[in-house]
Design goal:
The protein is of the alpha+beta class. It has 9 helices and 16 strands. Keywords: Carboxypeptidase, Cell shape, Cell wall biogenesis/degradation, Hydrolase, Peptidoglycan synthesis, Protease, Signal.
Length: 385
């Protein structure tokens, strides 16, 4: 049975699962043991093969580490230029590495390059210790964040992806954490850089040339991010996100027998998605949708915006003209108004059926008119007349 289907289609406040018609990609046509394709905007599953099977993820594990780093950078806790001291524990990590020396200093930026491009285990442990004081503390944070994201079949034991019997996740869960990472752009540059280098050692006298393990960088249009992984237990793995026009998709393959298979199959999955589906964006986040009158405000009216894209993910043959948007705003709005409190909604329809609702907000805080100024401008003006 063809499985290019849509499950878990939640249009914001709508709770019903919608199924998009099937297309030509069949699970049986893939050699990878597990795979999934999702829409990055709402998490809708478009294709799956054993997406909930618990498997070893190898270095794809580091997507969660990169997410935690990105979140700490976003709230100002760490910066690219900050320096950290490499511990004996970090320097002693095996597997993929950049051969850091114990007690040398490095910058956060160099560690991000090493993790994103070479998948360096020593750099990963160094960042885990830098952020949380220990690898164990970082692993706890990774598992806590996984639960928050709904990664219900994931359990991390380390920050590197090196084999551990209980270090398991699923293709679907990997897609979820990749989706979350796309909210930030702190590591995009490094994930999409083909070649760079860092100098390591206490004297910084050893150049480590970094060649990205993700060869999609050179041959896949619209690639946004990607992370490879390999161990003998996990085999070849890959998570990749790509964008074309207004559509962003995330594909994951696990358990491929060769690196050639993982790259070929992830491109096949992404291509099928872009060929058959698209996002129609009616209003982008922050666009002025309309104006609304307001009483007792500094100004007589204000701009109305949405804090998210107003969009619909659908089959590629649909057009924007097939849909209707209705705007419902509260009546007799009175200042003050907060930009964080909704004052209405946009409702999306197709063929008379409601597809979703999107909250609308003032573009900025609306201050109440000063009473004395209001009196001078209005009451006295009328008296003078």
């Amino acid at each position: 049975m063809k499985k290019f289907i849509a499950i878990f289609f939640l249009m914001l406040l709508a709770a019903n699962t919608a199924v998009v018609p099937v297309y030509g990609l069949e699970a049986g046509s893939l050699q990878s043991r597990s795979a999934v394709l999702i829409n990055a905007d709402d998490g809708q599953v478009l294709f799956e093969k054993n997406m909930s099977d618990k498997m070893a993820p190898a270095s794809i594990t580091k997507i969660m580490l990169l997410l935690l780093i990105s979140e700490k950078m976003d709230n100002g806790e760490i910066k690219l230029e900050q320096e950290l001291t490499i511990s004996e524990n970090a320097a002693g990590m095996g597997g993929s590495q950049i051969y850091l020396e114990a007690y040398e200093t490095q910058t956060v930026e160099n560690m991000l390059k090493a993790i994103s491009m070479r998948s360096a285990n020593d750099a990963s442990v160094a960042m885990a210790e830098f952020m949380y004081g220990s690898v164990e503390g970082c692993v706890k944070a990774m598992n806590d964040r996984a639960k928050e994201l709904g990664m219900n079949n994931t359990h991390f034991v380390n920050v590197t992806g090196l084999p551990e019997p209980e270090h398991l996740t699923t293709a679907y869960d990997i897609a979820l954490m990749t989706k979350e990472l796309l909210k930030y752009d702190y590591v995009n540059e490094y994930m999409l850089t083909w070649m760079d280098s860092v100098y390591v050692g206490k004297e910084k006298d050893s150049e480590q040339v970094l060649v990205n393990t993700n060869r999609l960088i050179n041959n896949y249009e619209g690639l946004l991010a990607g992370k490879t992984g390999f161990t003998n237990e996990a085999k070849y793995c890959l998570s990749a996100a790509a964008k074309r026009n207004d559509t962003t998709l995330i594909a994951v393959v696990l358990g491929s027998d060769t690196t050639k298979i993982r790259f070929a199959e992830i491109q096949k999955i992404l291509n099928e998605g872009f060929a058959n589906y698209k996002n129609i964006i009616f209003h982008s986040k922050g666009d002025v949708i309309r104006t609304s009158p307001v009483y007792c405000g500094v100004n007589d009216d204000f701009n109305v915006v949405s804090k998210e894209n107003i969009y619909y993910f659908t089959e590629s043959n649909c057009k924007a003209e097939d849909f209707n948007l209705e705007y419902v705003l509260e009546e007799n709005l009175k200042a003050p108004l907060s930009k964080d409190v909704a004052i209405g909604k946009a409702v999306l329809y197709k063929d008379g059926k409601m597809l979703g609702e999107y909250k609308l907000y003032p573009e900025k805080d609306i201050e109440k008119e000063n009473f004395f100024k209001f009196y001078l401008n209005n009451v006295l003006e009328n008296i003078i007349r």
